[in-house]
Design a protein that fits this description.
Layout (H helix, E strand, L loop, with lengths): L3 H13 L4 H16 L2 H8 L3 E7 L5 E7 L2 E6 L7 E5 L1 H9 L4 H6 L4 E3 L2 H18 L1
Parallel strand pairs: 1-4
Antiparallel strand pairs: 1-2, 2-3, 4-5
Helix pairs in contact: 1-2, 1-4
């Protein structure tokens, strides 16, 4: 089984080729499963009780992640409501997750748009990436 670092770095391969949405969803599922294995990370993230949407502006495809009551769930599609929504091209989303792109630089260059409380977005980014960076 791949580590979280290996799985995230593997996302860069998806940026290099024409990917299907199923490829991206499958990779995201693997990442969610790896995150679930880290009880500290799950505990910190699940306290947020948020519905997070990642929308690809170039394809219109959407992935939703729900953090609730100690669980992390992912699904394809857009929910009727959300707490945070990130809109960028698929390439930008994959670049951030793979570690090739700095999320702050992407935000300040306006390549990603955040809907919802910016403080929540920054908090989630810091929790997730602090764990990912420590595993790299």
């Amino acid at each position: 089984m791949k580590t979280l670092k290996e799985e995230l770095s593997g996302l860069s391969e998806l940026r290099e080729r024409d990917t299907s949405f199923n490829d991206i969803a499958e990779e995201l599922s693997k990442i969610i499963e790896l995150v679930k294995q880290d009880s500290d990370l799950v505990s910190r993230l699940s306290k947020k009780n948020k519905i997070i949407v990642f929308k690809a502006t170039d394809t219109g495809r959407t992935i939703t992640i729900e953090l609730k009551d100690g669980n992390i769930l992912g699904c394809i599609g857009e929910p009727s409501r959300y707490d945070l929504r990130f809109e960028a091209t698929e390439s930008i989303h994959l670049g951030i997750l793979s570690g090739e792109l700095d999320p702050d630089a992407v935000f300040f260059s306006r390549k990603i748009i955040v809907y919802g409380p910016l403080a929540d977005a920054i908090g989630l980014k810091n929790i997730f990436f602090s764990k990912v960076q420590s595993k790299m």
